[in-house]
Amino acid sequence: MKVLLVGDIVGKPGRNAFVQVVRQLKEDGRVDFVIANGENAAAGRGPAPDIANALLSGGADVVTLGDHAWDSKEMVAGIDMEDRIIRPANFSKGAPGRGWVRVDTPEGPLVVMQLICRVFMQPNYDCPFQMADRMLKGELGGDKVIFVDFHGEASSERMAMGRFLDGRVSAVFGTHTHCQTSDETVFPKGTAYITDLGMTGPKDSILGREVEPVLAKFLTGVPHKFDVAKGDPTLEGAIVDVDMKTGKASSIERIRISV
């Protein structure tokens, strides 16, 4: 099965690019299943359920979130209404929502799990390594095909997770920084890996935001409003080919497609 992993969707330009590109990839037979990070899908902020659900109806099979999961009070109240919208599993125990979902596909079950880093992020998240280990030894112990979105800043932490889970999951992929890395690989025990998928949104920008206000903030130190930019909408991500019987990845292809 070919699984498309979509980097952080930023605002309306990102949502539009996502729908257009995914539709074409599916029509061309290049992808069978789509995991999209919707962390910044609402004007660069965390989405309300209606926007996340629009991504599902627009081609995503699972939508992951991140540190902006609770930007919308509607998402706090509504995330439990849709299992295919997930937040990091190592959020506090009492947080709403869930950190993984098992989706039945024509070729068998596929699990998507999300974790969030702690380095340069909030230190009060539970340990992502221990959480992954507990889940793989517990409720996911019988699953073969598992994709892990590891949301965070530090490359080292994400690389360490990839090595930690090699042979235990099908893929570990980073989200959050909006900067696509070129280190895609399949580790020796069959786990596909990339440090960061990149961004789905306006490339003529600074991390999806209009250039001038960001420059002004750096030059003056004075706060500015960072609106989502509009130019050159592009989808960044990767396509992983996974054996649904063994759970091992045979390849990972980094992609960048402008619309």
Automatic annotation (TrEMBL):
Highest taxon listed in the record's lineage: Bacteria
The entry's keywords: Metal-binding
Organism, scientific name: Pontiella sulfatireligans
Active-site residue numbers: 68
Highest classification ranks of the organism: Bacteria, Pseudomonadati, Kiritimatiellota, Kiritimatiellia, Kiritimatiellales
Metal-binding as UniProt keyword: yes
Positions bound to Fe cation 2: 39, 67, 151, 176
Alphabetical list of CDD domains matching this protein: MPP_DR1281
GO molecular function per UniProt: 2',3'-cyclic-nucleotide 3'-phosphodiesterase activity; metal ion binding
Family matches, as InterPro entries: Metallo-depent_PP-like, YmdB-like
Binding site for Fe cation 1: 8, 39-40, 178
Protein name, UniProt field: 2',3'-cyclic-nucleotide 2'-phosphodiesterase
